[in-house]
Write a structure and sequence with these properties.
The structure is a single chain. Strand 19, helix 13 and strand 20 form a beta-alpha-beta unit. The N terminus is likely disordered. The chain is of the alpha/beta class and 571 residues long. The relative contact order is 0.16. Helices cover 33% and strands 21% of the residues. Helix 1 runs antiparallel to helix 4 and helix 11 crosses helix 16. It folds into 2 domains: 321 residues, Aminopeptidase (3-Layer(aba) Sandwich); 198 residues, 3-Layer(bba) Sandwich (Glucose Oxidase, domain 1). The chain contains 17 helices and 22 strands. The strands form 4 sheets. The protein has a 15-stranded mixed beta sheet that branches. The chain has a 3-stranded mixed beta sheet with strand order 20-19-22, with helices on one face. The chain has a two-stranded antiparallel ribbon with strand order 7-8.
Length: 571
């Protein structure tokens, strides 16, 4: 039998076995606990209540158990396991009776990509004007990517210490002022200047200026040859092991993207950065302190960076998986509400021992399981809302939101006709939540509906417990926001039934420290998916109301994405 066909048959057989097991009492007692009660939401019709009641926590479990199985090899972008996951999700959409909303009458939207894998022979050496060169060790001291797509690239460039690498005129902050960075290697910090003032870089909450993606994009726009981004756990909100895992394998970029690229997009471990500073006769702590003050001036360092980058480059296509449930409104059915979740994870990462499969059970098989269960519940409802509902499982989120970026630029319905995007990403299966996190919803005029619905669900809306992590800019709803579409993610807070808030916070901290982007993010039978079911019902309630509103949802006046919404409405 042809090997790909055999793999497909085995995949379907395993899927059926795993999903079928959900109905059998083979799990521990936690999974057999009755699901949370379905609330009454005054604004919803009986069909919506039926859809919410149809949500089954054990069906979410079954989806997660399959998607996180070793057979799917960590669902890597451009890897076999990722393609199997996409085909499986498309099959589920078809079984629910949803219409294809991809290309050529299929559920798949082709995302053209270029994969770049840095080879172990690549080297970075800091050469001070005086003193011995410092050879940085790949993975231990640094990780790096040549974004240009060259298979071999040599660089000998001066180093400029540029603080946070931010040019933010609205905050009167410009680290690039009065310095020539063309062709230079920029040493900079992750995150942004610390502040308690909500009018200055949003206070404790991270803005997009603090994200590593902005740092690389801005440096490339300024003509820099590369970036060395200093990692510090408390600033990045995750340990070096996460950076090492995320950047040790192949990185995927949108193919033929006209945006400027860096010859070296790299991270450096904090202790290695300290040695670099010392070789230049400087103290890293003093450099950081100076960079945090207004009026900071970039400093050319008395050193160069010599780099020999060797990359394996390949062109491939990945897929977003998109389905449609047509709306019932004569005019409003041409508009839409979108539900999103990314199905990819890190795949198989070479050089990790003893387990090199990054299964991504919580991140983000949980979001996919919720997405699929919402789709199933909507499709089975006796009546549909007025606007059409789209379900999109996107690829390459772990590569920098690439799949949702492509979907945001090529949506199934024009961006100015999309009322709302509701996203699910990494929803902990820890039991029944008493809180909900909808960070970003307050930026839209839909927030009063969110508040009222949360109250009817008995959920307390809580702010992001880690505002400095910049979660709003780290998940796929951000790609829709950049296109002007009101968008936010739905997640649990830290308070769960039967536990105090400290317990929930400890679970979140342990996950980030021990399992986030690690091979240990696996499915376990003692996971409790009742909370994921609550979040699914809450999302159905919000999406249904958004789909039935007379007018499209908008951003609050002055929001950073309001301009994009206004521009899309002119098209």
């Amino acid at each position: 039998m042809h090997k790909p066909l055999l793999v497909s048959l085995l995949t379907l057989l395993l899927a059926g076995r795993l999903i079928g097991q959900a109905a059998r009492p083979s799990e521990p007692a936690a999974s057999a606990t009755p699901d949370a009660a379905v609330p009454r939401v005054a604004a919803l019709p009986p069909a919506a209540e039926q859809a919410m009641a149809n949500v089954d926590a054990e069906k979410i479990r079954a989806q997660v158990r399959f998607l996180a199985n070793d057979l799917l090899e960590g669902r890597g972008t451009g890897q076999r396991g990722g393609d199997i996951a996409a085909a499986y999700i498309a099959t589920q959409f078809a079984l629910y009776g949803l219409k294809p909303a991809g290309e050529n009458g299929t559920y798949l939207q082709r995302v053209p990509m270029e994969g770049i894998a840095t080879q172990d022979v690549s080297t970075l050496t800091v050469v001070p004007n005086s003193g011995d060169p410092i050879d940085l060790i790949y993975r231990r001291d640094f990780v790096a990517m040549d974004e240009t797509g060259k298979t071999q690239n040599d660089l000998d460039a001066g180093i400029v210490w540029i603080g946070y690498g931010i040019d933010a005129p609205e905050f009167n902050w410009n680290d690039y002022q009065d310095v020539d960075v063309k062709g230079k290697l920029l040493l900079m910090l992750v995150n942004e200047p610390p502040s308690d003032d909500p009018k200055f870089f949003a206070g404790k909450a991270l803005t997009y200026y603090g994200r590593w993606t902005y740092k690389f994009e801005q440096a490339a726009r300024k003509g820099a040859a590369g970036v060395i981004l200093i990692h510090k756990t408390d600033m990045a909100s995750y340990p070096w092991s996460v950076v090492r895992s995320s950047w040790s394998g192949e990185r995927a970029y949108l193919r033929d993207d006209p945006a400027p690229k860096l010859s070296i997009a790299s991270w450096i471990q904090f202790d290695a950065a300290r040695k670099l500073a010392q070789a230049c006769g400087m103290d890293l702590d003093e450099m950081i302190a100076a960079a945090q003050k207004p009026g900071f001036k970039a400093v050319p360092l008395p050193a160069k960076l010599k780099a020999h980058m060797v990359s394996q480059v390949r062109r491939f296509d990945s897929n977003n998986v998109v389905a449609k449930l047509p709306g019932s409104g004569p005019q409003l059915k041409e508009q839409g509400v979108v539900y999103t979740a990314h199905y990819d994870h890190l795949g198989i990462v070479p050089g990790t021992y003893p387990d090199n499969i990054y299964n991504g059970a919580q991140d983000n098989a949980t979001g996919c399981g919720i997405l699929l269960e919402i789709a199933r519940a909507f499709a089975a409802a006796r009546q549909q809302p007025k606007r059409s509902i789209y379900f999109a499982a996107v690829t390459a989120e772990e590569q920098g939101l690439r799949g949702s970026e492509y979907l945001g630029k090529h949506p199934p319905v024009p961006a100015n006709e999309i009322a709302l995007d509701l996203n699910y990403d990494n929803v902990p299966p820890l039991g029944v939540p008493e809180e909900v996190n909808v960070a970003g919803a307050e930026r839209t005029n839909f927030y009063p509906v969110v508040e009222r619905t949360a109250q009817e669900f008995g959920l307390t809306i809580v702010p992001d417990s880690q505002p400095g992590a910049g979660h709003y800019y780290r998940s796929d709803h951000f790609s829709f926001a950049r296109a002007g579409v009101p968008a936010f993610s739905i997640d649990e807070g830290d308070k769960y039934q039967g536990h105090d808030r400290q317990w929930g916070m400890q679970q979140a901290q342990d996950y980030v420290a021990k399992h986030y982007h690690q091979p240990s993010d696996k499915y376990h039978p003692d996971m409790d998916f009742r909370g994921d079911a609550v979040m699914a019902r809450f999302g159905i309630a919000l999406g249904w109301q958004a789909a039935n509103q007379p007018a499209l949802i908008g951003w609050q006046p002055g929001d950073e994405f309001a301009k994009a919404r206004a521009e899309s409405e002119k098209e």
